[in-house]
Amino acid sequence: MSGLNSSLTTPTRIRWKTFRCGATLIDVAVGAALLSLVLIPALSLMGQSSQLLQRMDRQDQLLFEAERLVEQTKVELCDPAQFASTRGTREAIVAGNETRSMRSQVSVQDSLVPNLVTLNVVVWEDGNNNGSLDTGELSQSLRTQWSQP
User: Fold this and answer.
1) Which member of 62, 67, 110, 111 lies 3.0 to 4.6 Å from 140 by CB, making a disulfide possible if both were Cys?
2) pTM of this prediction?
3) Biggest alpha carbon distance in the chain?
4) What is the reported pLDDT for 128?
5) Summary mean pLDDT of the chain
6) C-alpha Rg value of the chain to the nearest Å
7) Is residue 97 a contact partner of residue 109, using CB atoms and an 8 Å limit?
8) CA 44 to CA 36: how far, in whole Å?
9) Out of 42-56, 67-81, 87-101, 133-147, least confident range
10) How many helices (H) and strands (E) would you count in the chain?
């Protein structure tokens, strides 16, 4: 009994668990892997959106130049002599923008209605500098009609 009695009276050793604050190396590695799964596609989307914005900006510039060229041609056609003699397709340069990276063509054709002409304007970014619109080059085109003054 003495053995049983001594085991009851002797205090048992209490183990204190030590709680650590922080993360283990495995926690950090898993967190970094999960973050990279989200971060890498987000960065590629940012690059794609930047390219789309640049393309839209160039398209906007082309459209602006086409509008300016339409207005410039309308002013030229206000002269009755010019209106009567101007027909066909020609390469045009917008006044104030003599760059060679943007090319433009103006086509003035007779319409079915007398004293009415159809204006077709095409402005494109001539990447290979060959003077003609090729597939894959950014372009904008406008069409309108103008009557004899």
Assistant:
1) 62
2) 0.66
3) 133
4) 82
5) 82
6) 38
7) no
8) 12
9) 87-101
10) 3, 4
